[in-house]
Amino acid sequence: MFHVKRSYAHGRESLRFPCLVDQDGGLGSKSTPTTVREKGAASMSDVFDSPIARQIAELNAKKKTLKKKSAPRPGKTRVLAVSNQKGGVGKTTTTVNLAAALATFGLRVLVIDLDPQGNASTALNIDHRGDAIGSYEVLLEDIPLSEVIQPCTEVPNLFCSPATLNLAGTDVELVPLENRETRLRSALESFLDEQETAGKRFDYIFIDCPPALGLLTVNALVAATEVLIPIQSEYYALEGITQLRDTIEQMRGYLNPDLVVSTILLTMYDRRTNLSREVAESVREFFPKETLDTEIPRSVRVSEAPSFSQTVISYDPEGVGAVAYKEAALEIAQRGAAKNGH
């Protein structure tokens, strides 16, 4: 046990680590210790009841709980389009980190990168430069998904169909083609049947959509059965959600009647601010069933990870960002299992 003790040497004040001393000033003696405290010094409760100490204790408790948990395997492959046309909400970050988190639980996961920026491919350390083939060839040249997916070397059980530079013009190139809205669904259905037959069923497919409601996003919404919407915990958080929901309703009416908004995830959450708390309350008021209990905190490590071609799950596995994404992934898996009666 420790107690803060101040000392002054050569006119300079220094803080020593807290200590318990006995009446004779000896450390660790068998005599009954008494606390030495001078004016202005922190007490034991001050040291261990600080906001930082509470956050560390909370994080450690979460990590301990996660080690005891396992993610239930879905009865059939879940296909989630991660979409929000409002930029800067953590869409790609959410895609790759949820995928990596589920993979660490032992589930087989595929990320389909449909964002021409290719940030999901970069974060997963997937080759998408030069002669690499990927989602563009699947959509425009009818190349099977099985020929373009690559394993993520950082995370076992995780694979990716990369976005190459060619994908930038895909919205325009799709316009004159037959079945332009359903090309990804056809490719994905063939791929999943092939994997099922080979005994290599995927548990989750995450489709990273571009921040626009063009034909790439339409293909994702037609191929998916669920939509996951990341929402930044800041002002204008709900901006654009109405338009996205209208698009989803159109998909349900004409092309994909099974499509539902299953999950909303609050990102960049800062519990120190009233604004984040108010945004969270508003989102949960509008989407009480869809919004996860877990919020993703604002984190430097989450932001840094892609620059090292990593997810935060592999870059900082014990940090607050990785723990939050693991909790969110577990919640998604558990909600899906409960809904399907598993």
Descriptive report:
With 342 residues, this protein is α/β, with parallel strands linked by helices. The chain has two domains: 1-45, no CATH class; 72-339, P-loop containing nucleotide triphosphate hydrolases (Rossmann fold). Helices cover 39% and strands 17% of the residues. The protein has 13 helices and twelve strands. The strands form three sheets. It has an eight-stranded mixed beta sheet with strand order 7-8-6-9-5-10-11-12, with helices on both faces. The two termini are 48 Å apart. Mean pLDDT is 84; it is low at 1-37.
β-sheet strand percentage: 15-25%
Q: Please mark out the parts with pLDDT under 50 across 5 or more consecutive residues, or reply none.
A: 1-37
On the 0-100 scale, what is the average pLDDT? 84
Calculate the terminal CA-CA distance, rounded to whole Å.
48 Å
Order of helices and strands: EEEEHHEHEHHEEHHEHEHEHEHHH
Number of domains: 2
CATH class of the largest domain: Alpha Beta
| CATH homologous superfamily title of the largest domain | P-loop containing nucleotide triphosphate hydrolases
Strand order of the largest sheet: 7-8-6-9-5-10-11-12
Number of helices, counting only DSSP H or I runs of 4 residues or more: 13
Q: Might you state the CATH topology name of the largest domain?
A: Rossmann fold
Quickly give the CATH architecture of the largest domain: 3-Layer(aba) Sandwich
Query: Percent helix among the residues?
Result: 25-40%
The major beta sheet can be summarized as:
8 strands, mixed
Shape: globular
Alpha-beta content class: alpha/beta
State the total count of DSSP E strands: 12
Rg, Å, rounded? 25 Å
